[in-house]
Structure formats: structure tokens, C-alpha cells
Amino acid sequence: MQQMRVAPSKSQFSFKDFLGLIKNTKPKYWQLFLGLALGLVATGVQLAVPSYAKQLINSFSKQFNIYMLIGIVVLFILSAVISAASGSLLGFFGEDVIQKLRNNIWHKLLHLRVSYFDDVKSGEMTSRLVNDSTQIKDLLSRSFPGLVTAIFTIVGAFAIMLFMDWKMTLIMAFSVPLVMAVMLPIAKKSHAIGHTRQDELARFNGETDETLSEIRLVKLSNAEQQASQQGQTAIGSLYKIGLREAIYDSVAGPIMTAVMMGLIVGILAYGSARVAQGTMTIGAMFSFLMYLFQLMGPAATLGQFFTTLSKASGSTERIQELMQESEEDFDHGTAVDVEGQTLKVESVDFGYEDDQTILHDLSFEAKPNTVVAFAGPSGGGKSTIFSLLERYYEPNQGAIKIGETSINDVSLADWRKQIGFVSQDSAIMAGTIRDNLTYGLTGEYADAQLWAVLQLAFAEKFVREMPEGLDTEVGTRGVKVSGGQRQRLAIARAFLRDPKILMLDEATASLDSESEAMVQKALETLMEGRTTLVIAHRLSTIVDADQIYFIENGHVSGAGKHQELVANHELYREYVETQFNQD
Ligand SMILES: Nc1ncnc2c1ncn2[C@@H]1O[C@H](COP(=O)(O)OP(=O)(O)O)[C@@H](O)[C@H]1O
Ligand SMILES: [Mg+2]
């Protein structure tokens, strides 16, 4: 049942994967193509400017041509307007893709199997959603069009220059490898440093995040000093990387400027000589310089493109991997009313990992409207049984049936709608009491209904005393309600959902005795008229149960009523004595 993860092996950019990913978002290609076309037009107009400038400059000696000047200004404006239109269109295109991509990833994440969440850190998942999608958008709507126009500029400018003066152009062209030879090692080095910094930053981010989210543990363990040290180490290595980066960054700038100056001086010297000879016009020389400046931007774009490409390549791979993970199947199965049907677990084997057995040959049944209790040593697999019943995981062997139907043939949404679950510390979301009660439910609920279930759960009083009643915010992870209150809210929620099968996993285990009594009473009301499976940690729950299963090492080692088990099952007797002698 565990899916093999697709091994990330290739580091090369896979165009096929990338296109596949993009195709799934059904992009508005017309925006891309129109944006690209406009970008080329704008570049074409820009390329025309130096040629006009040449004529303008050359015409100075005869007479000033005002129309020519106006013409050049108009060209500039025109190219700016077209450029802006092109940029906007490409931006729209990219935003549209990233929006759909994020929707796809978010949908995927929500529908993945629970086993995926056991293995992958939530930070990694949100990074797919936030960072990786951004990388892909950047490549698509910025770098790729940038590359196309850059190539167009370079080829166009080069062609025009060749046409204008091939000798001068070739001299310039030969200087390009020279410049590259100087710049490339620096660029490579600073790229590598950038990489190290990213990795270090990610690690630093993860470490601090972990520490801050467990701040109570840090304080209680007097671990501030230790955490502070850890932080300092990370901050220190970031500092060292920063120093190196500062050097390379500030070396790169001046060298680049020096090289450019050299080129310009060279062209000016050679050009002036040619002008003096009369084989070249002043206008042509200036126009050459203008082209040279026009080439600088595209050259940088070319260099950066490969960085973006390699980033987007990693992102594509990671998103692809995520998209290939298997999902829970919400389409299969029909709606089945579980009311009045016996829940049967038949010879189930299960392990979280492939080579592991947590449950083996486990069988039990729960007749409608009875209370079935599970008891046994910690780690025996009781909560795992509940996870299987909730269909977070699937058994490797055996079957779970409701009546004669396998629960796999009940539609997942319908199945989960009919089971209620209250655990040791019930989950609560940031939001109001009302939000928490109706979470996931689609209907409209009147206040009176909500108060009614709160009353059944012995939660009415404390909610009434809250400053804003049902609309009181409970804080992140419900920090503003106590453990007992949280449990009673979970029970109120269960009342509202009115499940046919109720599962209680040590629901009162973490409570003080006063809260425990109240939660227990609320649970007893909730259990009425439902099939209840309860993982017990209180003796009274076991004693009152219609049937008890004693779970040891993933196996049922004894079943029956309390008295029967006490009489026949030695381990059970010992367990009850050690666990419950305080009751
Ligand atoms: N998500 C999980 N992934 C891997 N192993 C798990 C997971 N949850 C529980 N286990 C393991 O399964 C075994 C049974 O755990 P559990 O069902 O929680 O026992 P119980 O509820 O009886 O105390 C334990 O050995 C536990 O370490
Ligand atoms: Mg448990």
C-alpha cells in the first residue's frame, strides 16, 4: 500500500516534464504568443533607433533635421508602449499559469493519502505550493520571453552592424570571447556561493522554525542557551558566506565596467582613426556604440537564463513528483447507510511500511448500537485499527466490511460522513467556536442548534461565558480553550455531525479528574443509539462495554466481557490491575 516514491535522479532540464506540467494548467497561449510577438516588434523598433541616429548625426554637418529628431523620439515612445503591452501580456500569462498550477497543487495536497503526510514535512509541501510554482512562472513569463528577445536583439544588432561596417563588427566580435574569459569564472563562483547561501538559509529557516514552534519545550528544558548557540552557528556561517558574496559581487561590478570601458575606448580609437581616414562617418561610430549598449542587457539575460532554467528544472521535478503521488479515491463506491449494520474486521494484516507488520490476522466485529472496547498495552496497535477504519490507510491483507459490503466499496466521503472521532487531544482550528463546530459541514446551522449540541456536550456554560459566545476566536491551534473545553467542543461537533459509528481514542486520557467527569458524561450521551468503538483507559468504560478486545502486538489475544476476561485471560487481569488500580 505504500507507494514507491519516484526517485529524483535527473538534474538536467526535462523539457517534456516542464511542458507536461504547463499543459495541465491549460494556459492561455494567445497571451504568450501575442506578448512574445509584441516583444519582438518592440525590439525591432529599438534596433532601428541607432540607424536613424546615425543619419541624424551625419545630417548635423549639413543642416539640422527636426523631423528626424521627432521621428526618433516617436520611435522611442512607440517601442516603450509596445514593450509595456508585451510585458503586461506575458505577466498575465504567467499569473494565469501560476494560479492554475497552485490550484492543482493545493487540490493534490488535500487529496493525498495520509501515508504521504507521515513521510514528508509540511514545510516541504508548502514550498511546492509557494516557491516551486513561482520558479516555474518566472521561467515561463519572464526568462523565456527575455531569452527570445535577447537572441533577436543580438542577432539583429549583429546583422545590422555587419551590414554597416563588417571590419569594425568583427573586431568587436573577437573581443567577446575575451570578455567572457574574464567574466565567466567570476560569474560561476558567485553562482556557487549563491547556491550555498540558499541551502544554508533553508537550513537556518527550518531550524529556527522548529525551535520557535516548540518554544514551551525549549523554555521548560532550559534549552535557551543551547538553541541560542545553534542559531549563532547558523548565523555565523551565513555571515561568512555573506562576506565571500560581498567580495565577489563587488569585484564583478568594477571588472565588468573596466571591460566595457576598454571596449568603448577601443571602438572610439579605431573608429576615430577610420573617421579621420574618411572611411567611416561619425554617425556610424555613434550608432555602433549605441548597438553595443543595446547588446549589454541581452548578454546579461542570456547568462541569467541558465540559472533560472536550472532552478525551474528542480522545481518542475519536485512538482512532477508530487503530482504523481497517488490520491485517495473519492470516485469509487456508492453511498451506503451503515445504520443497523455490523462492522466486521476480518483477518487484517497491516504495516505502515512495506516490510513491517503492525497488525496481523486481526479480527473483530461491532454489532449495531453496542459498545466495543479495545484495551491492551501501549503500542499494541489500537489507534492503528482506528486509522484503518477511518480509511487513512488500507489493510495489506484481509477485509473490513459493513454488513456484507467492503468499506472500500462505500464512497469515501459518505463513509467518513458516518463516522465520528474523538481523540485524546482533539484537533481544533484557528477560528471561532462556530467555525469549529460546523467545520466541513455544508448546511446552515441556527444558533439554537449549536447551543443545543453544546449543551449536550456540557460545553454550553463556558461558551456562554466567553466574551463573544459562539463568535469567540479560539486562537491558533485552540490555545485559548483548555484541554477539557476542547474535548467538549469536539464532542459537541460530533453531536452536530450525528455519526452512526463513533470512535473514541482515549478521549479523556489527558484531562484532570473534574473535566474528565464532565467529558465522560457528555460521551455517554453521545454514545446512545450509535455503534461505539472505544479505546479505553478507564476501567468503567471497559466494565460497561458489551464486548472487549484485548490487543497485544497487533493481534486480538482475548475477547469477551470484563468478567469473562478477568476469569480467563491472565494478561488481561494483570493489565487491569496495573492500569486501573487507582480507579
Ligand atoms: N504513522 C505511523 N507510521 C509508522 N508507524 C506508526 C505510525 N503510527 C503508529 N505507528 C507504530 O505502530 C505501532 C502501533 O501504534 P498505535 O496503533 O498507536 O498503538 P496504540 O494505540 O495501541 O498505543 C507502534 O509501534 C507505533 O510506533
Ligand atoms: Mg493509541
UniProtKB/TrEMBL annotation:
The keyword Nucleotide-binding applies. It is found in: Cell membrane. Residues 343-578 form the ABC transporter domain. Residues 33-311 form the ABC transmembrane type-1 domain. It catalyses: ATP + H2O + xenobioticSide 1 = ADP + phosphate + xenobioticSide 2. Signal peptide: none annotated. Pfam families: ABC_membrane, ABC_tran. It comes from the Bacteria. The chain crosses the membrane at residues 64-93, 144-164, 170-187, 246-269, 275-293. GO terms for molecular function: ABC-type oligopeptide transporter activity; ABC-type xenobiotic transporter activity; ATP binding; ATP hydrolysis activity. Keywords: ATP-binding, Membrane, Nucleotide-binding, Transmembrane, Transmembrane helix. It is an enzyme of class 7 (translocase). Efflux transporter for a variety of amphiphilic cationic compounds, including antibiotics. PANTHER family: ATP-BINDING CASSETTE SUB-FAMILY B MEMBER 10, MITOCHONDRIAL, ATP-DEPENDENT PERMEASE MDL1, MITOCHONDRIAL. Belongs to the ABC transporter superfamily. Multidrug exporter LmrA (TC 3.A.1.117.1) family. This is Multidrug resistance ABC transporter ATP-binding and permease protein. It comes from Latilactobacillus sakei subsp. sakei (strain 23K). The lineage of its organism: Bacteria, Bacillati, Bacillota, Bacilli, Lactobacillales. The gene is lmrA.
